[in-house]
Write a structure and sequence with these properties.
With about 60 residues, the chain is mostly helical. It has three helices and no strands. It has one domain. The longest helix is centred in the middle third of the chain and has 21 residues. InterPro entries: CbtB_put.
């Protein structure tokens, strides 16, 4: 990948290289993290998840 890749190009690349099992594992992981955040609803848990997303490089706001 080069620095000039577009988001559309990255999606197309991911679509052709990620297996259905990998996609399912990613979706289940995201669902589990979301459920944990929803179930706990405590400020400390929310802050921990927020910091985790930033550490993983996910923009959340």
């Amino acid at each position: 990948m080069t620095a000039t890749d577009s988001v559309h190009g990255r999606w197309n690349h991911a679509r052709t290289t990620i297996t259905p099992a990998q996609a399912l594992a990613a979706a289940l992981s995201i669902a589990a993290l979301g459920f944990t955040l929803l179930a706990l609803q405590e400020p400390a848990a929310h802050e921990a998840m927020h910091n985790f997303r930033h550490a993983a490089g996910i923009v959340c706001h």
